[in-house]
Amino acid sequence: MTPVTPLLPPAHWRDFLALTKPRVMTLVVFTGLCGMLAAPVGVHPVIGFTAILCIALGAGAAGALNQWYESDIDAVMRRTQKRPLPDGRMDRQAALHFGVGLGAFSVLFMGFAVNAVAAAILTVSILFYVLVYTVWLKRRTPQNIVIGGAAGAFPPLIGWAAATGDIALLPVLLFLFVFLWTPPHFWALALFMKSDYAAAGVPMLPVVSGERTTRTQIGLYTIPMAAVAILPWPLGLTGAIYGIAAVLLTGWFALLAVRVAKRTTHADDAMKPEKALFKYSILYLFVMFGALVVDRWFA
Amino acid sequence: MSIPDPLREEDLIRSRQRGRARVMAVLLGAFVILVFAISIAKIRAGMPH
């Protein structure tokens, strides 16, 4: 006998909003906006606003489809069990329809209102996050966020393409920077959320290979990330404002990463250095992109 | 296990439907204004589409 799925009342509109992961969207929108503002050509404010709106909607669609696919593991993890689907506030099919509809709308609107290059990269980023990261990698390999990190690295590229209709070296370096920033950022989180990931059966690096390996990997990934973060300055793609900010901010990131890399934990450890690295990594990304835009304004 | 009150449930459903319809109306209105603004921007810039 097939199990009977209880009928749910229509979900509240706020639950649809929660499905789009608004907090993650903030970072995506900000890096997309900075990618656009760093471009050498100006963009009409209405077209620019539309491009950023499409990036936000695309990211929201990817977040919704991610939550649709992962509702089973979200229900096990403390951090995610209050989301609309695991909490039983929304029907899974409604989440699927919402995600697909929003994704298709964001890509088509980007194509019609902005340009085809930006729409194409937006399509790749949504599909990469949903199919490559969520469906294929996340439950299979501890390298999930290394490869999957590319999905979150696309927004500056999309923002740049929205302004210029093209891709250049600087946005590619910005893509690489976010791509290489993702592993230390997520592994710092995974270190203090290890038990949650283990309970949900997600093969994050600390769960599969242990804390020692994860700490070493955080240190190792920080090296190319730091190099790519500073590289636009010596290449002449940015000015001294970005260069000096990048050196100082990245230096502090490296110090925090080294502290995490060298540590060994004991029972009931509060994981303060790991939490500090995780929090700083978010601020770091915001300030680095902000410095890029300020540098452009004064160039 | 408590038995759901059908009247209360209907009120909840109606209020959710009203809320969603209002949000949808605001979003559609904003979309129309945005498409209008995009058209004006492209006409002024002399873009082909």
UniProtKB/TrEMBL annotation, chain A:
EC numbers on record: 2.5.1.141
Membrane topology term: Multi-pass membrane protein
Record has Metal-binding as a keyword: no
Signal peptide region: none
Catalytic activities: heme b + (2E,6E)-farnesyl diphosphate + H2O = Fe(II)-heme o + diphosphate
Keyword list, A-Z: Cell membrane, Heme biosynthesis, Membrane, Transferase, Transmembrane, Transmembrane helix
Metabolic or biological pathway: Porphyrin-containing compound metabolism; heme O biosynthesis; heme O from protoheme: step 1/1
InterPro entries tied to this protein: Protohaem_IX_farnesylTrfase, UbiA_prenyltransferase, UbiA_prenylTrfase_CS, UbiA_sf
Segments passing through the bilayer: 24-43, 49-69, 90-110, 116-136, 157-180, 218-235, 241-261, 282-298
Subcellular location: Cell membrane
Family, as annotated: Belongs to the UbiA prenyltransferase family. Protoheme IX farnesyltransferase subfamily.
HAMAP family membership: CyoE_CtaB
Role of this protein: Converts heme B (protoheme IX) to heme O by substitution of the vinyl group on carbon 2 of heme B porphyrin ring with a hydroxyethyl farnesyl side group.
Miscellaneous field: Carbon 2 of the heme B porphyrin ring is defined according to the Fischer nomenclature.
Protein name: Protoheme IX farnesyltransferase
Protein's organism: Sphingomonas albertensis
Source organism phylogeny: Bacteria, Pseudomonadati, Pseudomonadota, Alphaproteobacteria, Sphingomonadales
From TrEMBL, chain B:
Keyword Membrane: yes
Entry protein name: CoxF protein
Transmembrane segment boundaries: 21-41
Keywords linked to the UniProt accession: Membrane, Transmembrane, Transmembrane helix
